[in-house]
Design goal:
heterodimer; A: alpha+beta; Aldehyde Oxidoreductase, domain 4; 3 domains; 7-stranded mixed β-sheet; 5-stranded mixed β-sheet; 17 helices; 28 strands; 28% helix; 25% strand; B: alpha+beta; Enolase-like, domain 1; 4-stranded antiparallel β-sheet; 22% strand
């Protein structure tokens, strides 16, 4: 059983290491799927529906097929089938240039019989709504969860809060849109994919084309963000490969921004009606919620709740509501930000009602000891004692406030990764595994682990990931699982490679293995010292190549987090200006502190967009999205980002994943800070000036 | 986008002839708006006349009569120009908060004044709205959070320009070149409100006309000007409401002023009502409040944009108070 124990004293683990691919990325040398250009490559493009609902009655590809430069056109829906949302795929073309492909899809003719659509959550639930899914009143079965004795809980409550909270549909908005370059060589398919799961994508391609998996190779050297939306080929990947097969030429098909925003996933919205009670001593005693959300036509809407805090008596009811819109997909901590925003707001409201400090109230109900320490650390960092004792009581037009939010995530990783470490006779070291770096820095983390074990520097290690060819599988990068799944296997592979080298050297000079010490770039054998290169050169014609194995003991799940926000609200304009965010995150054993802090910053920035800016807008009249572009769909830019104090809270734990937990508490912290500033609560995200002004006027 | 021919004239005088009068041609300057429209098939001109091929249109020059700015001066040129910063502050501030730095580096003053509306129905390639020749304004019955509270009907766009309110407030004149030669008119008269007969245009330019330059009068003593823009996303956004103020003051007394609102109407919107309250008066918080109320007396909000009335009222008050503090 391996341990990180000794290694924690290392000069690399938990220190600041620059990203290995950083220079390549900032100089444009890194090749993303978007940058892959193959000899004879064609450009694919998808014709999408501009209507939200109707029956396809005719589809004529011939005008496109007859255009010069168009090499293939294929249908993506059969005549007679129902079109169910704006952006649904109708057909795809492959052409010599991007422009010809764009013209070609406009030349395709299709007809439809319109059907009534619904894109509004409330309307979809009403009895007059068209039935658009196989759910009664477009609502999925209720998921009900109960604990304790709710009635008894209410009788012991001294204070009760009832409120309705809601959150928007948030779109992943990956900087690199979904897409692939597909190339056939006989029955062998190679795909460059912007994916967070090379092996999963290989499996899906193989199934779709009824190929043995070993006939498909998927490559993702660099990719521009997935956030949970990129786990398989999707319709666009299948279309790219089909067009490539039909034309016998490689095809690149990347989604347009509009296609990306409308069809490549989103975080479902949420509406919840919640009632909760606490005793005057500060104990949560009852919690009842009924809530729903829309994931377009898909499932997966929902929210965590009760969240983080312990409630002895509760009843929760959750369900999905269908609308004619692109389906939701996993999105950085699915269901958690929705739940956390509502729960954190609710806790704030209850604390005020029983006359208790909000943080104190949380501590009384939060069983997680790590988070208790995080509360203290964050409170000190933000200056919790400066918080308005009476919300909205600060004088003046611009009012400041401070708020707190909490989060919890699993992220413990799991079995299934194969990894290999090779030591070559020229001293080069390769670490090979089938994971992929979706921007989180696993490439650098692998180099750090191997270098740490072998007494080298991360830049000495060649990390080969994002390719199925070596046949060393690893899982998809989701659920904050990548580092805790990959690190143990890489660590044990490096340990095995080191042991092999030691045994080889010991045998060579005929000493016991204990007399060979590998440290800080050199190898000591008894009284002799060799450089790493010299030691490796004794391998001659041999190469050391060792696989690692899963080791439960090297990783751990369960990451607690707390965030604090200070805001300044202009009560005349409704504008919320962020002053500072403090994010304290349990990160387990940190491999790369620089990447960890960067991950925290990224999560907070995503949370800022969720709290204040982002919102997919659907138009009831046309059934279309009105802001499937980067102007009207507002992600946070540089000026929206305040000072972020990213605190990787060191604990005596093992490797865990933190990609997701760091985005969970942000919105709740901001919403509570807004309330603390103005004394009026906005219970609906995003908190935009119109909502703040309206809330102030209604107060 | 559709195919088009690209013409590089050598001399300004050629442009009206090249444009013809069939509405099938467009001039292109920075292209930051036009190319987006063409890519989304909102506009599909057959000919683009490239103004960048004509030298000298980007000059900014001060003289005895004031300041002349060529239509091809970039927004960054204007923001960084010391004379404009000093004497025409509202314009420097307005140009400095347009879109993003990248866009300001290529976007021109002429283009900023002639840019098309941002209404999301207008910008949706598949929505045949009134502005594009359709028969209804979708904003009226739909989602109109960002639409007009003044001067709307039959469409309810807001004019998206930041520099326009500033220039109108500063008393700018615009020089227009057409087939029949040049004419110079007050910029305020350049912008038009939609009418039933013509809901398509935001200004008086005929198809073969272009803006060549903007002229600003000499600054009057004891005059300050400023531009305040409220937006959801500071990094890159159009105004929810903006205000350009030019105040000639003596102590706390406002001798004369210009208050032009942006983001609230299909054209830069002069608040005569607020001006009347403030003109010749000693400005106090209370008077500012009254001016704000007067400014929105005739506001006509739609289903989702009543907050703009509050915003406008508060912004007028803020501008008045700021002018004398």
């Amino acid at each position: 059983m391996a341990e990180w124990g000794e290694a924690r004293k290392s000069s690399l683990l938990g220190k600041y290491t620059q990203r290995l691919s950083g220079p390549q990325k900032v100089t444009g040398q890194a090749k993303y799927t978007f940058d892959i250009n193959r000899p004879g490559m064609l450009y694919g493009r998808i014709l999408r529906s501009h209507i939200p609902r109707g029956t396809l009655t005719a589809l004529d590809l011939s005008p496109a097929q007859q255009m010069p430069g168009v090499k293939a056109a294929i249908p993506l829906i059969e005549v007679g089938k129902e079109i169910r949302y704006e952006g649904q795929e109708i057909a795809a073309v492959a052409a010599d240039t991007k422009d010809i492909a764009a013209d070609a899809i406009r030349a395709i003719r299709f007809d439809y019989d319109p059907l009534d659509h619904v894109v509004d959550l409330g309307e979809s639930m009403s009895e007059s709504s068209p039935q658009i899914r196989d759910w009664e009143n477009n609502q999925s079965d209720r998921q009900i969860d109960e604990k304790g004795d709710l009635q008894a809980g209410w009788t012991t409550a001294d204070a009760v809060v009832e409120a309705t909270y809601s959150t928007e549909v948030q779109v992943h908005t990956c900087l690199e849109s979904h897409g692939h370059v597909a190339e056939w060589d006989g029955d062998q398919l190679t795909v460059w994919a912007s994916t967070q799961a090379v092996f999963g994508t290989r499996r899906d391609f193989a199934r779709h084309f009824e190929l043995p998996e070993d006939k498909v190779r998927v490559i993702t050297e660099h990719m521009g963000g997935g956030f949970g939306s990129k786990f398989g080929p999707g319709v666009e990947g299948q279309a790219a490969a089909k067009l490539a097969k039909e034309t016998g030429q490689p095809v690149k098909l990347m989604l347009t921004r509009k296609g990306e925003q409308n069809t490549a996933g989103n975080r479902p919205s949420m509406v919840q009606h919640v009632k909760a009670g606490a005793t005057k001593e500060g104990k949560l005693v009852a919690y009842e919620v009924s809530g729903y959300g829309t994931s377009g036509l898909g499932g997966g809407a929902g929210f965590t709740g009760p969240y983080v805090y312990q409630v002895p008596n509760y009843r929760t009811e959750k369900f999905n509501v269908a609308i004619n819109a692109g389906s939701g997909r996993a999105f950085r901590a699915p269901r958690h930000p929705q739940g956390a925003f509502a729960m954190d707001s609710l806790m704030d409201e209850l604390a005020e009602k029983i006359g208790m400090d909000s943080l104190e109230f949380r501590k009384l109900n939060d069983p997680n000891e790590i988070r208790h320490a995080e509360y203290d650390r964050g409170a000190e960092e933000i200056g919790w004692n400066r918080r308005q004792k009476v919300a909205g009581s600060a004088p003046g037009i611009q009012k400041r406030g401070i708020g707190v939010g909490s989060g919890q995530w699993g992220g413990g990783g799991g079995k299934g990764t194969k990894a290999r470490v090779n030591i070559n006779s020229d001293g080069t070291v390769e670490a090979v595994t089938g994971t992929q770096d979706l921007g989180t820095g696993i490439r650098t983390a692998i180099a750090i682990i191997v270098a740490d074990e072998l007494g080298l520097q991360p830049t000495d290690i060649t990390v080969k990931i994002g390719d199925t060819l070596p046949g060393l599988p690893s899982g998809g990068s989701g659920g904050s699982q990548t580092t805790p799944s990959v690190a143990p296997v890489v660590k044990t592979a490096a340990m095995a490679a080191k042991e092999s080298l030691i045994n080889h050297l010991a045998e060579k000079v005929n000493v016991v293995a204990d007399e060979v010490v590998i440290k800080e770039g050199s190898v000591t054998i008894g009284n002799n010292q060799l450089s790493w290169k010299e030691a490796a050169s004794t391998l001659g014609m041999e190469t050391i190549s060792e696989e690692g194995s899963w080791d439960e003991n090297l990783r751990e799940g369960g990451a607690a987090g707390a965030q604090f926000a200070e805001v300044e609200v202009d009560t005349e304009t409704g504008q919320v200006k962020l002053i500072k965010i403090v994010a304290v995150q349990d990160c387990g054993l940190i491999i790369n502190r620089l990447a960890t802090e960067s991950q925290i910053n990224g999560g907070v920035i995503g949370g800022i967009g969720y709290a204040l800016l982002e919102d997919r807008i659907m138009d009831g009249q046309t059934g279309r999205s009105l802001n499937s572009n980067l102007i009207d769909y507002k992600v946070a830019g540089a000026q929206e980002i305040p000072e972020i104090r990213a605190i990787a809270h060191d604990t005596d734990r093992k490797v865990t994943g933190i990609g997701e937990p760091v985005t969970i508490p942000t919105a709740g912290a901001i919403a509570n800070a807004v309330y603390n500033a103005i004394g009026v609560r906005v219970r609906s995200l995003p908190i935009t000036p119109d909502k703040v002004l309206t809330a102030l006027e209604e107060a | 986008m559709e195919k088009f021919s690209y013409i590089n004239p050598a001399r300004l005088e050629q442009v009206p002839g090249l444009l013809k009068d069939d509405w099938q041609s467009k001039v292109i300057a920075g292209g930051t708006d036009l190319l987006g429209e063409m890519k989304d098939y909102i506009e599909s001109p057959k000919r683009l006349i490239n103004l960048k091929s004509i030298p000298g249109l980007d000059q900014i020059s001060a003289d005895d009569g004031g300041l002349t700015i060529g239509a091809m001066a970039t927004l960054t040129d204007i923001t960084e120009h010391s004379e404009i910063q000093k004497n025409y502050t509202a314009l420097a501030e307005a140009a400095g908060v347009v879109a993003s730095p990248q866009i300001r580096n290529v976007g021109t003053l002429g283009g900023n004044l002639c840019q098309r509306p941002r209404c999301w129905y207008y910008r949706d390639p598949d929505t045949d709205c009134l502005k594009k020749g359709g028969n209804m304004c979708y904003a009226l019955s739909g989602l109109n959070k960002y639409n007009a509270i003044f001067g709307g009907g039959p469409n309810y766009i807001v004019h998206p320009s930041d520099t326009a309110p500033a220039l109108v407030a500063l008393g700018a004149e615009v020089t227009i070149l057409g087939a029949g030669g040049q004419r110079t008119i007050p910029l305020e008269n350049f912008f038009i409100l939609p009418t039933v007969a013509n809901p398509y245009r935001e200004n008086i330019l005929e198809p073969n006309e272009i803006i060549t330059q903007i002229h600003l009068p000499k600054p009057i003593a004891n005059t300050t000007s400023f531009y305040i823009k409220l937006r959801e996303r500071s990094s890159f956004d159009f105004a929810l409401v903006s205000i350009a103020g030019v105040f000639q003051t003596q102590g706390k007394k406002c001798q004369d002023l210009s208050l032009i609102l942006g983001g609230v109407a299909p054209a830069p919107w002069r608040s005569n009502e607020a001006e009347q309250v403030l003109r010749g008066q000693v400005i106090s918080d209370d008077l500012g409040e009254r001016a704000g109320k007067a400014a929105v007396k005739n506001a006509d909000p739609m289903s989702d944009n009543a907050y703009k009335v509050t915003l406008t009222q508060n912004l007028v008050k803020r501008a008045a108070v700021m002018a004398v503090s």
